[in-house]
Amino acid sequence: MLNNFIVAIIECILNTALELDPTLSDRLSSIAQKRLLIDIRDWQQQFLVVFTGQQLHLYNTTEQQFDCMISADIQTLMALKNPAMLTQLIRQDKLDLQGDLNIAQGFSNAFAALNIDWPEHLSDYLGDAAAQQLWQLVKQTQQQSQKVNKKLSTTLTTLCQDELKVTIHPLELEQFKQHTRQLKAHVAQLELRINQLLQAK
Amino acid sequence: MNENPEKTTHFGYKTVAKTEKASMVADVFHSVATKYDVMNDLMSFGIHRLWKRQTIASSGVRKGHHVLDLAGGTGDLTAKFSQLVGDTGQVVLGDINSSMLKVGREKLHNLGLVGNIDYVQMNAEALPFPDNSFDLITIAFGLRNVTDQNKALRSMYRILKPGGRLLVLEFSKPEHQVLSKAYDFYSFNLLPKMGELVANDGESYKYLAESIRMHPDQETLKAMMNEAGFEQTTYQNLTGGIVALHRGFKY
Ligand SMILES: C[S@@+](CC[C@H](N)C(=O)[O-])C[C@H]1O[C@@H](n2cnc3c(N)ncnc32)[C@H](O)[C@@H]1O
User: Fold this and answer.
1) Domains of chain A: which residue ranges?
2) ipTM higher than threshold 0.85
3) With an 8 Å Cβ cutoff, is A138 touching chain B?
């Protein structure tokens, strides 16, 4: 039931996008009434998306009927931006696609091109000047956070690289093990000889 | 009053003549029709919307399908189905009560849903359609109001196409004692009060609470569906069994 509730909220957000960007409806029209089933493997959940011409419908379902099905882990799905990656992912069994792929692509393209004129919509509530100011602020914050993000990710990358130098490579480990084994053998031989010497006395 | 069990049935907790139940149920829904949607949201805290979403998610409905939303009332399910079946499909909103149909028709018109919806007054016990007509039949919170439920289920079976399915969304039996007690208190004490305050009609909402208790539980309804000919019959408890969604297929 909780799932159901969250899905209902997401559906509501999608439909708000549909209202705020009038061109979205046009971009979706070519795939109207087509059922896209999204199977998120690690959640063990399936979601059905349909654009009916008026509204977007989103359901959490166990039905196995679709016009196009896409199945992957959530991380793989989120990273699915570059079509060149598709074949590779499918070969690695990380992604499964069935049915008419134009449908998945249609949804993806339509939302990628989402362009909502926020100041325009906000001004209905706030008045033009305030909306413009608020929007500037949002944008600044966005840029700022992008900067921070970038810094963070470079720091992370360097960290990882440094870390890489510190951690041992499997080959190194193998080598180390071999050395230890040799050493053990030597010690054993030595022990034998000492024992022999002791007995010979 | 006639106490002959052949001729009597339940109207909430009262025993009434079978011939009378339909008109008594009709009175209830005539009197609540205009307030029905508001009351639904209030009484279930809006959760009825989620129960209905689950029904649609389990329907397998798609472009071109023929759907009967039986006892459809003010048409919540019809509104969604109408969009999902598109202009090549068809949805019939069927109800025994003209006031409910009228409210439904107005609501759907205002939502801009026209073209593929028919509004037909009908009794679930004798559905006015040829055999094998529909891909899907839903009856949401309707079956418990029907006098002869077995007859109604057989009638639904008859007009389903082979491969078609029936979905029954109805109040049922809560799975846990505590929930059951709380629910009893809510429906017998608070619900009629709310009915009194908002719809100015406590009696109708008392009937609602009583009719829910008299309705068959999960397993009984499943057996009734099997009896009527449905196959692969299953049910899913929603909100701890306060409501159950039964599903059966005709092959
Ligand atoms: C509680 S309402 C449900 C309306 C709608 N399905 C919903 O879920 O909101 C029950 C409906 O069943 C209708 N009804 C009662 N007995 C019926 C019968 N024998 N045949 C058809 N409809 C009936 C009533 O008129 C009423 O509109």
Assistant:
1) 4-112, 119-200
2) no
3) no
